[in-house]
Amino acid sequence: MELRAYRNHRLRSKTKGGGNVNVGTVNREMNTLRAMLNEAKINDWITVNPFTKARPGELINTADEQPRETILTYEQEQRLLKECHGENRRHLKALVIAGLDTGARKGELLRLTWPQVDFEVGVIRALY
Q1: Is residue 97 within a helix (H) or strand (E), and if so which, with residue range?
Q2: CA-to-CA distance for 108 and 85, rounded, in angstroms?
Q3: Which residue, 35, 54, 63, 82, is most buried by CB atoms nearer than 10 A?
């Protein structure tokens, strides 16, 4: 099955920094590919989605992913916020505080739009 070969190839691939590609990255790519193939099947562009021929968990297994475990201490948070001061870094403070308070990833924070931010209630709504 070509999907299994692609997954194995991606897991052996290197990142730009020279490290191994993360299992979570490959799982997200496979989820995107599955969604694209589902859409192609719905539109009759393909007759069979190859994901339907795989066993559950064979191509996308989130159990293989490592959970995030980083929790900053109060002192580490203070040092990080202190580094946000200065003429060239003031713009970072709001992002750092939002990241610390929500646990959101950098990309999730950078993709936020104004309708997702409610200052009156003090809420950031993630749209998935």
Answers
A1: helix 92-102
A2: 23
A3: 54
